[in-house]
Amino acid sequence: MKKVLTKDNSVTFHNKEFDEHYHSLTGAKEEAVKKYAEPCRIAELAKSQGEINILDVCFGLGYNSAAALDAALQSNPDCIIRIIALENDQEILDQAKNLEVSFRNYELIKAIAEKHKAEKRNISLELLFGDAQEKIKEIDSDEILFDAVFLDPFSPKKCPVLWTEEFFKDISGLMKKGAILATYSCARSVRENLKAAGLEVKDGPIVGRWAPGTLAVKK
To answer: For residue 6, is it within any domain?
Structure first.
């Protein structure tokens, strides 16, 4: 697995199987903050609700969750945060355990990468390891509903099974009314599948590329 330095001096890796990088080369950390934590309004929710539940699909190096932790705790240090992450690649989790990253709460990411669980005062993280299509069905909507979803698989072309209407319906069923799903893709098929899953679709931010990402809101 090849280590790559992105333009904002944060590290990503290249996956040989999918022949894609785990993050945008214009800035891996920037992407986590600008495409996921900010458009999902993590800081605002931490202050207004005092409690946040996040679903992180395709956890990877955990940058998206780390950006969310930093934003939430800076806004409200007493915010109760629960993150459930889905990942099936132990190799990328092993890389996370050894990284030195500028996210303030990355030690929690290292802990979940190693033990698949991490807790600290008002924070609880759990990683469900395996096929995301199967693992998402293990999450009980009677036990938890999510305020935000980070959808960050490899591209629809390379990993189509995680961009289907069926998978999006499973995600939608776990979202609170008004919850926001953020993803980097703006592909027409992705947006149509999100709409078919009962989500309202709009443009996300343009960060490091010519096209916007996508935000999908639970009606």
So the answer is: no
